[in-house]
Amino acid sequence: MSIHEDKLNWCLGSEKRMRRITPNSELSKEHIKKAKHNLKAADFNIRGGFSDWAVSQLYYAMYHSLLAVLFKKGFESKNHECTINAIEYLIEKKEIDLDKEDTAFIRTTEQMTQKDAKSLREEFQYGTKTEVNKILLDELIKKSKEIVEKIEVVLND
C-alpha cells in the first residue's frame, strides 16, 4: 500500500474530511466553471491593485479544478490536504493523466520560490502584506492557468 493510498484511507475515515459519492459530472463541470471564475477575479483584482487577494483566488482556481476531478471520480472532499493527496493517488494509479509536479506546485513546490501556492494564499489572506512580488505573481498566474486548462482537458477525455 502506497503512502497516498494510506492517506486516502485516513481521509475517507471521516466524512468531515472526504467521502465516496456517486460520480457527478455536473458538479465536476460546476467546479471547473468556478475555477475559471476565480482566474477572472484574480485578473480583475490584479488590475485593480489588489494582488494580495489575487493570490487566494489563484490558489482557489487550482483547488476547484482538483475538486472537479474528484467529483468526476466519485469523491467529495472538505479538506485541502485530502483533496491534493487524492489527486496524487489517482495519478499514481494512472486513473488520471496529470503530473505530480502540478500538485507539488499547489502544495509544496520546489519551483519558483520556497513557497507553495497554499502557503502564499495563507500568507496574503491572513497576513498584513498587500504587495506581491511581480515575478512571483506572474509565475503563479501562469501556472494557475496552465493547471486549470490541463485539468479541463483531462476531464473532457
Write a structural description.
The protein has 157 residues and is mainly α. It has one domain (3-156): Four Helix Bundle (Hemerythrin (Met), subunit A) (Up-down Bundle), CATH 1.20.120. The protein is 70% helix and 4% strand. It has 7 helices and 2 strands; from the N terminus they run αβααβαααα. It has a two-stranded antiparallel ribbon with strand order 1-2. The radius of gyration is 15 Å and the shape is globular. The two termini are 28 Å apart.
Number of strands: 2
Pattern of helices and strands: HEHHEHHHH
The CATH superfamily label reads Nucleotidyltransferases  domain 2
Structural class: mainly alpha
How far apart are the termini?
A: 28 Å
List keywords for this structure.
157 residues; Four Helix Bundle (Hemerythrin (Met), subunit A); 2 strands; globular
Question: Could you outline the blueprint of secondary structure elements for this entry?
Answer:
Layout: H1 3-12, E1 18-20, H2 25-47, H3 51-73, E2 75-77, H4 80-92, H5 100-107, H6 117-126, H7 134-156
Antiparallel strand pairs: 1-2
Helix pairs in contact: 1-4, 2-3, 2-7, 3-4, 3-6, 3-7, 4-5
